[in-house]
Amino acid sequence: MDTLSYKTISANKETASKEWVLVDAEGLVLGRMASEVAKILKGKNKANFTPHADCGDYVIVINAEKVVLTGKKMADKQYVRHSGYPGGQTFQNPQDILAKYPERLVEKAVKGMLPKNKLGRQLFRNLHVVIGAEHKYEAQKPKVVDLKSK
Fold first, then answer.
1. Which of these, 1, 73, 3, lies nearest to 32 by C-alpha position?
2. Angle between helices 102-111 and 30-42 (to 10 degrees)
3. Hey, what's the torsion of the CAs at 73, 75, 76, 82, to 10 degrees?
4. Which pLDDT band holds residue 2 (cuts at 50, 70, 90)?
5. Cα–Cα distance, 125 to 12 (Å, whole number)
6. Where does 1-143 have alpha helices with state H?
7. What CA–CA distance (Å, rounded) separates 90 from 88?
8. Contact at 8 Å (CB) between 15 and 96?
């Protein structure tokens, strides 16, 4: 009997088959969309998922400014930052962020759902959030994923 046939094959950065995926955020709820995008970035939707390796896909999110928040979160939710100086705490609500930098709302939601370590920072680099429907990643021939049906 061949004992080598019982070896568990673990995916790593070199053996992972990474693809480009396009997600249209128009009309999608922010948190639900962000959790699905985080799963794709981490590679949990693949059969060869390995928790300690970057085996996920590259994700392009278009129409980031058309994302939806449920309830009164658009006005009541607060994002907190601190400059590091005494009294340097600043608060922003999603309305302010959407008005100035619409892509950051999606980036913050997805980044919060990734691991808080070196792997999470590497996975976050695979996310590309775009304002509007036009993007500069056509050469990668991204596969369109419909999250509205989920």
1. 73
2. 60
3. 110
4. low
5. 17
6. 30-42, 73-76, 94-100, 102-111, 118-124
7. 6
8. no
The domain locations on the chain are: 18-70+102-145
CATH superfamily of 18-70+102-145: Ribosomal protein L13 (3.90.1180.10)
Length of the chain: 150
**Parallel, antiparallel or unpaired: strands 143-145 and 127-129:** unpaired
Following CA atoms 72, 28, 19, 129 in sequence, which dihedral angle do they give, to the nearest 10 degrees? Answer: -50
In 3-state terms the chain splits into helix, strand, coil percentages (rounded to 5) of 35, 15, 50
Residue range 30-87, pLDDT digits in tens:
999 999 999 999 999 998 899 999 999 999 999 999 999 999 999 999 999 999 999 9
Task: Give, in degrees to the nearest 5, the angle at Cα 74 between 71 and 75.
Answer: 105
CA 49/CA 43 separation, integer angstroms: 6
